[in-house]
Amino acid sequence: MQEPVIFELLFHSGCSLRWLIFKGMFVKNHKVGGRKYVVFGIRLLVILFALVACGSAEAHRIAEGEELYIQECAQCHQLHGGGYKHVYPPLAGNPIVVFPDAQPAIEIVLNGRGSMPGFREQLDVEELAKIVSYIRHAWGNNAPAVTPTQMK
C-alpha cells in the first residue's frame, strides 16, 4: 500500500502526468509465493523523481518567466529578444546573459544599466528569478536558471 501514497505525493508535488505513465509502464507487480514484489522498484522511481524534480522546478520557473518577460521586458527587448540596435541590447546570444556566472545579468535586472531601469523595487525576488531564468534559457541561450536566493 506504499505505492499509492508515493504516487499521490508525486502528483501533488507538481509532477506531470508522465510520472503516472512511468509508473504504469515500468513498475510491474508480480506474485511470488502469494506476496507482491515490485520488480523495477519504488527505489528507482524515487531516485528518478529526485533527479527530475530539480529540472521540473527549473522548467516551471522558466515558463512563468516567459509570461513576466512579455509583461515587463518585451516592449524594449522585443518578444524574440533582439532588442533595438543602439537603444536596447539584444538578449538573445548576449554574452552577459549566457555567462556561466549569472550575477552580472542579475545586477543589471536589479539595478538597471544605461536606459534600462532597475526592477528591484517593482518585482519581488521570485518574479525577478523567473525573468532572469527565462532570458538565460530563451532564444538559444543555454544558461542555467537562477533561484530567488541569487537575486540579492
Describe this structure in words.
With 152 residues, the chain is mainly alpha-helical. 54% of the residues lie in helices and 8% in strands. The chain has seven helices and four strands. It has helices at 2-12, 17-26, 42-72, 74-77, 95-98, 103-111, 125-137; strands at residues 29-32, 35-38, 112-113, 116-117. Strands 1-2 form a two-stranded antiparallel sheet. Strands 3-4 form a two-stranded antiparallel ribbon. A hairpin with a 2-residue loop joins strand 3 (112-113) and strand 4. Helix 3 packs across helix 7 (125-137). The N and C termini lie far apart (45 Å). Mean pLDDT is 77; it is low at 1-30 and 34-40.
Gross morphology is: globular
- Summarize the helix and strand pattern as letters: HHEEHHHHEEH
Distance between the termini: 45 Å
User: Structural class from helices and strands?
Assistant: mainly alpha
Radius of gyration: 21 Å
Unreliable stretches covering 5 or more consecutive residues: 1-30, 34-40
Total count of helical runs of at least 4 residues: 7
Number of strands: 4
Mean pLDDT: 77
Proportion of residues in β-strands? 5-15%
Give a quick rundown of the structure.
This protein has 152 residues and is mainly α. It has helices at 2-12, 17-26, 42-72, 74-77, 95-98, 103-111, 125-137, and strands spanning 29-32, 35-38, 112-113, 116-117. The chain is 54% helix and 8% strand.
